[in-house]
Amino acid sequence: MGVAYLARRLLYGLISLLILSAIVFALTHLLPGDAATAIIGENATAEALAVLRARLGLDQPLLMQFAGWLGGMLTGDFGVSTTLNQAAGPIIAERFLNSLALALGTIVVAASLAVPLGVVAAVKRGSRVDGAILTASYVGISIPDFVVAPALIILVAMPPLDLFPSSGFVPMTASLAGWLAHIVLPIATLTLVLSAHLLRQTRSGMLDVLLSDYIRTARLKGLPERTVLWRHGLRNGLGTTIAVLALDLGYLMGSIVIVEEIFAYPGLGRLIVYAVANRDIPLVEDTALVIGAVYVAANLLADVAHAALNPRMAQP
Amino acid sequence: MTVETSAAAPRGRSNRYLRAGLALTAAALAASALGFLYTPYSPTQVDLVHRLARPTLDHLFGTDRYGRDVLSRVLAGGWRSLTLGFGATGLGLAIGLPVALATGYFRGAVDQIVMRFVDALLSIPTLVFALLIIVGLGPGQLQAILALGVASAPKFVRIVRSAVLAAAGEDYVTAARARGERALYIQYGEVLPNIWPPIIVEASINVGFALMGGAALSYLGLGTQPPFADWGVMINEAQQYIAVSFWPLLGPALAICLSIVGFNLFGEGLRDHLHLKASLRDV
Amino acid sequence: MATSRIGSLRLTRRAFAGGLVTAGSLALAIPAILSARAYGEAKPGGRLTVALYKDLRTLNPIMGIFGNEWRTTSNLYNNLTRLTASGGVEGDLAASMTPSQDGDLWTFVLRDGVKFHDGSALGAADVVATIEKILDPKTAAPYKAELGPIAAVKAIDRLSVRIELSSPYADLPKALAGPMARIVSERGIADFAKLDAVVHGTGPFVLKEFAPNDHVTMERNPAYFRAGRPFLDRLALRVLPDTTAQTAALENREVDGIADVEADTFKRIAAVKGVNAIQVPGGTFNNIVLYANKPPFDDPRVRMALRLAMDRPQMTDAITGGVGTPADDEPISPSYEFFDNSLALRKPDLVKARQLLKEAGHGDGFEHKLVVSNSPASREKTAVVVQAMAEPIGIRFNIELMDNARYGATIWNKGIESYVGNYGTRPTEDAILSKLYSAKLGIDEGRWAGTETGKKVEQLIEQGRQVTDNAGRRKIYAELQRVTSDEGPFIIPNFFNSLFAAWSYVNDWPARAINTEMRLEDCWLAPDAPGRKA
């Protein structure tokens, strides 16, 4: 993998982000209602709406609005949230860090749980162990997160156990212990939901490799089973897992609205749903772009990791 | 451990998965079909005197906050949930499969452009993408299928395309090309039958995701039109007063869990089955 | 069991007999907290944390539209006037208020020595700047209309303000207690765009930190004009959008109180030992809008048929989880000063309802679309229950649920489809009546003002504004209550009670009918409160 390849991928990523911005902008504009109706609510008069639209720049031609936003973005200016009337940059920066902490925490916990189990299940496929692991994974895959989260709150965060704060958030800078205590339950919920999928993809990926000619050749060469498994099996089999983890990172950054809402966790998911519901287009755009950028970066990293693990893999 | 024993075992296991998956899926389908024709009570019959009743012989799953019979609602909600799950997955596949086969097979500039779009769409969180679509279209069963289906299409393109890319280098494709077969035939006649396993697995998992996605939309207040409900909407409704009574949660939660387990077992079983057949043929 | 609850609800309606809500009648509903120890015992200090539900976007009082925004600003700002616990009105920043003989000229004299948080002194110019800003069409203030018919505001001297009305308006002092009329300093008004996150007020607490839709923290204002107030050193408001998490947070004492308890969880919270769950009859309601200028509901018989199909106590029970007050399609609840409790609650009569429908030419019933916004969630509950009640007489509502912004832009007050409206308790009868029924002063939401009765109602509303003696007003509002109940263009099945919860160590919680005024300046913590330890 050369520098040229990386540069090309990076360029692709940037193009995708540009397309993403245009799509999100267009979609949000197509929705009925705008920020003016959201700000003024059920008290709107035509006169007040017109005044607000002018003040918010919503009466400008669409292309102008998009160009204005894009121009600001290129100079690092995230613009102003139309409904909160505050600079969007700091709001998003804070939420971004919160989401990132939650996402990375979940990925570390989920991966260290699911990957070994997935490998074991693949190696011992067909055995009781495999059966038990898979059955357990069905539980995780089939219970919705918004059942898991309140159940966890009732079971662990309320008397008699009362082990953790039920919800909320404490910045890491204010109190490390407080931050940790508050993030445990959201991570536990998300781990339960993600591990199952991760485990099954790992098992599946390992199975593909273990049944491949490549491993057969290694075995025929008379290499010890341990070497076959660790040196050859794992390196190739974890490709799927890494790709899934990259996808999961994107998911954790923006799609876990419900978990964020239940635990009152100030992450990007809640922010973007708020922004869509209130037609706060700069905020929708900024948040989507940040989530998209994480996704692109994660995929790039996954590619690099994949290639590093498995140099003989063809470059797409 | 040797290849022989380990290869022999999954066959029995995969058949067991397949059977269990088929049984659960069939049960879900049967319950939905039953709910279409018959329910003990009208699923929308409000009974304000018997609100939030515990399970009794009259109401096996109890009643919800409006006094409606939960069992009847679970039965009647079945087809809504299943059409949502299958419909959205089917739509996602219907969009994703042809795009992936064409771009993965032809490669080139069009592939590059399409993939940039796919990447862009993939990087929008699925729930937000679906939300944008459903807010634009207005809520409803069909709209939800459309939203979740379209939102899942980029993922299918991605997954299927990588399988197509891998397959494109295989001997049988090279051979077909050498025979001068038409591109469409090679895509659908040669490549597709050989890349089914990952597609099946992803599709079966996606059915569950679509059900959850529908439930998530209902959490945001954009689910099925009341007073009707699919399982996700019911769970969401019951979840809001779980601290008061968890009985109304039980029925729909069981239904959705068992169905999702069923689809996954089915997918997994079929995958192992097909995979085994493929690997045996290679031998 | 349902009957006994209805009985007590009726009793509540009656408890407000005499129009003026007395502290005694409130104590009926809320024995635990309002009967708290005398202020002399109040111990200053400590930190209070209160859970809020959902939206908290802005701290700008003039632009706020959500209850949580008003709850917050009521601790950061003061108004000229404020409502008392008994529903009357008293001066807040105003030391005195005097109407002219005709009632169209009011003079307010401000307290001397009041300071804004930045140290500058409160003066007449600040009041003028605030009110002019609200009235300026360029501000697009959502609640401008509810300030009343103000023609001009003038500063007479350093502390005196004169408000000129375009017509007499007896309710001006109460209207000025509304959440949009918090007094902002002249400097704050000059920097209006910043007011969303910066406070230029005189209130008992000073803003420390604000994260929109997440939390706001405040500290005691040592220069507050009421001596010894506030008692609390610190006040934190946290947005907890999930009811299970909210309940858990209260039980774990992560929060000391909940500002707006979700009705379905109220009884569960009330069962927690040591927690006081407080309900006060309020005036918030959801109204099904039946356009009076369009078939089928342009026929008063059809509207009456629908009314007669409603079993209100049962509906109240189902919609509010047993903590509401039945309503008779009128927007005036028992919490208003001039509520007439002599009107008996209408009893369901399906036979008569079917008869009326038949007379109106709808013997086979009809289908009708009913649009519901997804926020707040109580709208959907109202729609489902009304739908169930209407079905037996053959009126089949088809509910269409949609996103709130789409609803706001395409359905609300557009005169096209029936929908479920949502309105909070107002300080005065006039504020809600003129908004909903007058085309001139408000939005005439049901398109009723064009009809003969509607025109009369519109005139009565204008009359109500101008009559200054209480007996005369009582008569007018009783008549309006009766007409809107019998012929109005809405179905209003119930009022939502204002629901609060707080640990027993929280004293003098402001449990008011208008639950969006949450002034915590008198609130104090007992020695065993967790907020005193940290």
Structural overview:
The complex is a heterotrimer of chains A (316), B (283) and C (534). Helices cover 76% and strands 0% of the residues of chain A. With 316 residues, chain A is mostly helical. In chain A, helix 5 (88-123) packs antiparallel against helix 6 (128-142) and helix 8 crosses helix 10. The longest helix of chain A is centred in the middle third of the chain and has 36 residues, at 88-123. In chain A, 54% of the residues are buried. The mean pLDDT of chain A is 87. By secondary structure, chain B is an all-alpha fold. Chain C is α+β, with helices and mostly antiparallel strands and 534 residues long. Helix content of chain C is 30%, strand content 21%. Chain C is globular and about 70 Å long. Chains in contact: A-B, A-C, B-C. Chains A and B meet through helix 1, helix 6, helix 7, helix 8 and helix 9 of A and helix 1, helix 3, helix 4, helix 8 and helix 9 of B.
Largest interface: A-B, 66 and 58 residues
Which geometry of chain C do the CA atoms define? Answer: globular
Helix content of chain C: 25-40%
The total beta strand count of chain C reads: 20
Give me the secondary-structure topology:
The complex is a heterotrimer of chains A (316), B (283) and C (534).
Chain A: H1 3-30, H2 35-40, H3 46-56, H4 62-74, H5 88-123, H6 128-142, H7 145-156, H8 176-210, H9 213-220, H10 225-254, H11 257-262, H12 268-277, H13 281-309
Chain B: H1 3-37, H2 70-106, H3 108-122, H4 126-137, H5 141-168, H6 171-178, H7 183-194, H8 196-219, H9 231-239, H10 247-282
Chain C: H1 2-15, H2 23-29, H3 31-34, E1 47-52, H4 67-73, E2 81-83, E3 89-91, E4 94-99, E5 105-110, H5 124-135, E6 150-155, E7 160-165, H6 172-175, H7 186-190, E8 205-211, E9 215-220, E10 234-239, H8 243-251, E11 257-258, H9 263-270, E12 275-289, H10 300-308, H11 312-320, E13 324-326, H12 350-359, E14 366-373, H13 378-390, E15 395-402, H14 404-410, E16 418-423, H15 429-437, H16 452-466, H17 470-487, E17 490-491, E18 494-503, E19 506-507, E20 524-525
Parallel strand pairs in C: 1-10, 1-11, 14-15, 14-16
Antiparallel strand pairs in C: 2-3, 4-5, 5-7, 6-7, 8-9, 9-10, 11-18, 12-16, 12-17, 12-18, 13-18, 19-20
Helix pairs in contact in C: 10-12, 11-13, 15-16, 16-17
